[in-house]
Amino acid sequence: MAACYSSLRRGSPKCLPSPKLALHTEAVIVLPNSTLGLRLLVSMGLSCTGITSPLPIVETNCVTYFHRKLIETHLKTIPSHAFSNLPNISRIYLSIDATLQQLESHSFYNLSKMTHIEIRNTRSLIYINPDALEELPLLKFLGIFNTGLRIFPDLTKVYSTDVFFILEITDNPYMTSVPVNAFQGLCNETLTLKLYNNGFTSIQGHAFNGTKLDAVYLNKNKYLTVIDKDAFGGVYSGPTLLFHQLNLKYFTCV
User: Fold this and answer.
1) Are 67 and 156 within one domain?
2) What is the value of pTM for the model shown?
3) What is the tens place of the pLDDT at every residue in 32-78?
4) Is residue 197 located within the same domain as residue 241?
5) Tell me, what DSSP letter sits at residue 6?
6) Domain count, the chain
7) How many contiguous H segments (helices) and E segments (strands) does the chain have?
8) How many other CB atoms are found less than 10 A from the CB of residue 21?
9) What keywords appear on the UniProt entry (predicted)?
10) Are residues 163 and 101 in the same domain?
11) Gyration radius from the chain CA atoms
12) Can you give the CATH number for the domain in which 63 is found?
């Protein structure tokens, strides 16, 4: 087994013999934004933290699939095409970041092997561009936990083809409503929605339009008082509804 290390000098990545017990492949990668200069340790199963001065972008295809954990990076934004030089990346975990404020247009764009995206404990994150999450055909899990988002994110351009897609939006206290067509275009197959403990006060009419729903979990949305009578209008199939600890004042099943 050989580990592949991308060189910061000119030339192709170098593949070196791995230690006998080596269990991961590492590569130094830089996000393609001259103002960020984020130096990352990309690995199978390892985390990465920190920012350095700007470095040249290093591209590598040594790894077939790998994932990246971005923890306490102190970034203010994830730029457009941030991961475009990583065609084989399959999982991204973004967490415990007190300074991250926004995801720019095409932050996660046209990543053909991406299966998991998780954004967690980013309380300063207040804006996700409507085009930030686009063309992710193999995505099977998207999780958005404990952010400062006030508006439900635009997920209508994800276009996943996974047959059992799971969306989890949890612990977002400032997110007050599920809008019309919120999940249309997210996935064209079976969809499970876990929408726990948010600041929702209402779910609008046709919020679930154009979806094939397996289950919708609305547990612990204690401020949710109104589910529009047409909220499930336009649903192709399903769902099973699961909720408790709600204070619903108005909900009609059609």
Assistant:
1) no
2) 0.76
3) 343 343 434 333 333 344 433 322 333 443 344 567 788 878 889 99
4) yes
5) -
6) 2
7) 0, 22
8) 5
9) Leucine-rich repeat, Signal
10) no
11) 20
12) 3.80.10.10
